């Protein structure tokens, strides 16, 4: 079976139908991963006893494939009576997977703040909560903006994993076309082109947003 | 089936996981080196070409690349085994990321290093080979380890091409006996057993490298 | 706020009548096996200007950082502004707000403007409203001769300007004591004097100052007393006239020879 360019053009709109879900899943997963990652990092910085547990948890998340984590949630949650829509399971899986990486982003963002900053704050008599709220957090946000932006694109690129859970996102739409027409090459290539374009747009948007928010300082400190 | 039986069954797929990983590295390392160095040094249309190639492999979702190549190569008359396609796609995807860290490491090098090399009368290629690359590669070893872990984890995808790797074995076992909790816990554990030592090793290298740097700066 | 032109000439005899600003008795500190401070005794009166000098690693910075408990001592008694500081005590921030500190690396907050650097603690700790806080900040920026930079960010200033802002930031809290931890060591040579000039003005205003510095010219001109430290101990204390012309201790002699050529 030769590659049929006309057919590929023809199915473009059908594959594109999944784009709404793809973007929805990406945004929801990004929020989920950021929240979870922040929680892991707070736990890692809490007591001496929690720290090694949190570290092992983060390492475990990072040492297992996202595909397997998705299977795990998809097959194991219902076993315990937790029946979620496939899309929600998928968002949960991608959130958990990337939370392991985003925890590291938070860690690096906090570690990069010089010790002198909190020393200066306490020498002015600022309380611990004020030091965190006014000195540490704003600087951390600036430090994490760029890596977090990069992970948002990675998350976008991981959304097609949800096709294995039969979530109707863009790769899923491509499979629908394939199973209707018994032609796989064209839908897959079309999906590839669409995802590549989407990822490129994502990168451009993230860069622009960072600049707009002034989160990437023009002058280095 | 007991936990140990399941785990043993899953590890029957380890050889495929390992082969795809090693073949993937055989694609990733040369691609990262050549593409990273070329992108750093080339200009004009060559640079554009290299950049497009890197971005294609790096910016497309891995799973989509895998399906697109697996299904479309035969349509262009290219017949490759699942292992070959899997290793190539995984390797070049990871290699694309690797090329960026090589380029970044080269860019981060002190310009004085190149100037000192040239001033000693070394040719430009010798400066690259003897001075720049050794330093750049030392710096990027931790990144490289992380990418290797990404590659190992990525091999789970070849189960979708019906290769009998660890993930595929788990699915086979779950068809024999319906026990998702044990089977998928075992599968997570299996990958953890394979990847975690690599993580620890990478952390050790990172610590050693940063200690090395510190002792240099103290002198 | 005292106007800067009103230079009060300081009277030592009067202050010795009051309780001391800082009283340090047998202070010791160690990191694992390394002794950073050994039985340090030092009393500083209100209005006194002390310069602490000594070779690197002699414990000068550690001592000054103990005074506002950025470093915790293990042994001895430490009384600052009438409060005895106990390691691990609560309510340190109440003590710190009366002790200003200027750091070697400025430690300005990079995400805040110069003005906000100055007003943050006034608003959060002293509970002033924005208008009051900004008035205080402007007055102190004036005092360090940098009022025109109020709306800039620290990264837009030179090192000398940054350090003057750091001094203004500390002054805003109306501290009873100012600690200077090598305030000019990180500066390019041509910027050192602008910072020392501001410090000299402060001294003339009667501020109680404890300065760790290698600037012997400043020490000679401003200090009431030089404290020489070596290996975690105070080796010698003397007025500058005496310390520079006739140091008693061998290590002090050696130090002066090295630093003054």
Provide tags for this entry:
heterotrimer; B: 219 residues; MetI-like fold; 9 helices; 0% strand; C: six-stranded mixed β-sheet; Ectoine/hydroxyectoine ABC transporter permease subunit EhuD (chain A); cell membrane (chain A); transmembrane (chain A); transmembrane transporter activity (chain A)
List the helices and strands and how they pair.
The complex is a heterotrimer of chains A (221), B (219) and C (261).
Chain A: H1 5-16, H2 19-44, H3 50-62, H4 66-79, H5 86-111, H6 115-123, H7 128-158, H8 170-181, H9 185-212
Helix pairs in contact in A: 1-8, 1-9, 2-3, 2-5, 2-7, 3-5, 4-5, 5-7, 6-7, 7-9, 8-9
Chain B: H1 3-11, H2 14-41, H3 44-59, H4 62-72, H5 82-108, H6 111-119, H7 124-154, H8 166-176, H9 180-218
Chain C: H1 12-15, E1 22-31, E2 34-44, E3 49-53, H2 60-67, E4 75-80, E5 83-84, H3 92-96, E6 99-102, H4 114-124, H5 130-143, H6 159-172, E7 177-181, H7 189-204, E8 208-212, H8 216-222, E9 225-230, E10 233-238, H9 240-245, H10 250-260
Parallel strand pairs in C: 3-8, 3-9, 6-7, 7-8
Antiparallel strand pairs in C: 1-2, 1-4, 4-5, 9-10
Domain ABC transmembrane type-1 (chain A): 19-207
Subcellular location (chain A): Cell inner membrane; Cell membrane
Keywords (chain A): Amino-acid transport, Cell membrane, Membrane, Transmembrane, Transmembrane helix, Transport
Describe this structure in words.
The complex is a heterotrimer of chains A (221), B (219) and C (261). Helices cover 77% and strands 0% of the residues of chain A. Chain A has helices at residues 5-16, 19-44, 50-62, 66-79, 86-111, 115-123, 128-158, 170-181, 185-212. In chain A, helix 1 (5-16) packs across helix 9, helix 2 (19-44) packs antiparallel against helix 7 and helix 8 packs antiparallel against helix 9 (185-212). Chain A starts with a helix and ends in a 9-residue tail after the last helix. In chain A, 46% of the residues are buried. The longest helix of chain B is centred in the C-terminal third of the chain and has 39 residues, at 180-218. By secondary structure, chain B is mainly alpha-helical. With 261 residues, chain C is of the alpha/beta class. Chain C has a domain at 108-174. Chain C has helices at residues 12-15, 60-67, 92-96, 114-124, 130-143, 159-172, 189-204, 216-222, 240-245, 250-260; strands at 22-31, 34-44, 49-53, 75-80, 83-84, 99-102, 177-181, 208-212, 225-230, 233-238. In chain C, the strands form 2 sheets. A 6-stranded mixed beta sheet of chain C has the order 6-7-8-3-9-10, sandwiched between helices. A 4-stranded antiparallel beta sheet of chain C has the order 2-1-4-5, with helices on one face. In chain C, helix 4 (114-124) packs across helix 5 (130-143), helix 4 packs parallel to helix 6 and helix 5 (130-143) crosses helix 6. The longest helix of chain C is centred in the last third of the chain and has 16 residues, at 189-204. Residues 1-17 of chain C have low confidence and may be disordered. Chain C: This is Amino acid ABC transporter ATP-binding protein. Chain C: Keywords: ATP-binding, Nucleotide-binding, Transport. Chain C: GO terms for molecular function: ABC-type amino acid transporter activity; ATP binding; ATP hydrolysis activity. Chain C: Belongs to the ABC transporter superfamily. Chain C: It comes from Allomesorhizobium camelthorni.
């Amino acid at each position: 079976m030769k590659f049929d360019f006309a057919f590929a053009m023809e199915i473009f709109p059908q594959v594109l139908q999944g784009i709404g879900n793809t973007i929805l899943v990406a945004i929801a997963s990004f929020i989920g991963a950021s929240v979870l990652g922040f929680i892991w990092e707070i736990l890692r910085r809490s007591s001496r006893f929690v720290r090694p547990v949190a570290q092992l948890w983060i390492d475990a998340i990072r040492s297992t494939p996202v595909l397997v984590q998705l299977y795990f949630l998809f097959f194991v949650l219902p076993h315990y009576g937790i029946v979620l829509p496939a899309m929600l399971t998928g968002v949960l899986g991608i959130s958990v997977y990337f939370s392991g990486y985003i925890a590291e982003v938070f860690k690096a963002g906090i570690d990069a703040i010089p010790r002198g900053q909190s020393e200066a704050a306490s020498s002015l008599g600022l309380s611990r909560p004020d030091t965190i709220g006014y000195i540490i957090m704003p600087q951390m946000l600036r430090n994490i903006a760029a890596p977090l932006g990069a992970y948002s694109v990675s998350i976008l690129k991981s959304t097609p994993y949800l096709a294995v859970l039969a979530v109707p996102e863009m790769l899923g739409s491509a499979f629908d076309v394939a199973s209707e027409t018994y032609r796989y090459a064209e839908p897959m290539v079309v999906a590839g082109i669409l995802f590549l374009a989407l990822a490129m747009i994502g990168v451009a948007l993230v860069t622009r947003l960072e600049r707009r928010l002034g989160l990437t300082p023009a002058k280095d400190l | 089936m007991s936990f140990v039986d399941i785990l043993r069954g899953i590890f029957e797929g380890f050889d495929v996981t390992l082969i795809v990983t090693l073949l993937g590295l055989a694609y990733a390392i040369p691609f990262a080196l050549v593409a990273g160095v070329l992108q750093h040094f080339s200009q004009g249309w060559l640079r554009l070409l290299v950049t497009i190639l890197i971005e294609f492999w790096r910016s497309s979702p891995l799973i989509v690349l895998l399906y697109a190549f697996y299904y479309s190569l035969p349509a262009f008359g290219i017949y490759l085994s699942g292992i070959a396609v899997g290793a190539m796609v995984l390797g070049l995807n990871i290699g694309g990321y690797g090329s960026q860290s090589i380029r970044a490491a080269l860019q981060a090098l002190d310009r004085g290093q190149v100037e000192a090399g040239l001033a000693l009368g070394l040719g430009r290629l010798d400066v690259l080979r003897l001075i720049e690359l050794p330093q750049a590669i030392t710096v990027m070893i931790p990144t490289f380890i992380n990418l290797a872990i990404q590659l190992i984890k990525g091999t789970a995808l070849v189960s979708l091409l019906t290769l009998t790797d660890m993930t595929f074995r788990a699915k086979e076992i779950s068809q024999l006996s319906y026990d998702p909790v044990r089977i998928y816990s075992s599968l997570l554990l299996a990958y953890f057993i394979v990847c975690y030592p690599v993580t620890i090793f990478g952390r050790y290298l990172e610590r050693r490298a940063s200690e090395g740097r510190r002792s240099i700066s103290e002198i | 706020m005292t106007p800067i032109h009103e230079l009060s000439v300081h009277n030592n005899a009067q202050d010795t009548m009051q309780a001391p600003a800082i009283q340090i008795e047998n202070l010791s500190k160690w990191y694992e096996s390394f002794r950073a401070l050994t039985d340090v005794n030092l009393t500083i009166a209100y209005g006194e200007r002390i310069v602490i000098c000594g070779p690197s690693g002699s414990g000068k910075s550690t001592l000054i950082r103990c005074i506002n408990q950025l470093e915790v001592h293990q042994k001895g008694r430490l009384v600052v502004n009438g409060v005895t500081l106990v390691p691990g005590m609560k309510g340190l921030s109440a003590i710190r707000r009366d002790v200003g500190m200027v750091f070697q690396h400025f430690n300005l907050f990079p995400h805040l403007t110069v003005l906000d650097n100055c007003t943050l603690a006034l608003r959060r700790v002293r509970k002033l409203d924005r208008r009051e806080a900004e008035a205080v900040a402007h007055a102190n920026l004036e005092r360090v001769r940098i009022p025109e930079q109020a709306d800039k960010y620290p990264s837009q200033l030179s090192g000398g300007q940054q350090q003057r802002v750091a001094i203004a930031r500390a002054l805003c809290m109306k501290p009873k004591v100012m600690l200077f931890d090598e305030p000019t060591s990180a500066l390019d040579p041509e910027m050192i004097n602008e910072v020392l000039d501001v410090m000299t003005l402060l001294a003339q205003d009667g501020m109680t100052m404890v300065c760790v510095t290698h600037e012997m010219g400043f020490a000679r001109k401003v200090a009431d007393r030089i404290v020489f430290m070596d290996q975690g101990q105070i080796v010698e204390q003397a007025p500058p006239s005496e310390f520079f012309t006739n140091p008693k201790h061998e290590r002090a002699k050696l130090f002066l020879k090295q630093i003054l050529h």
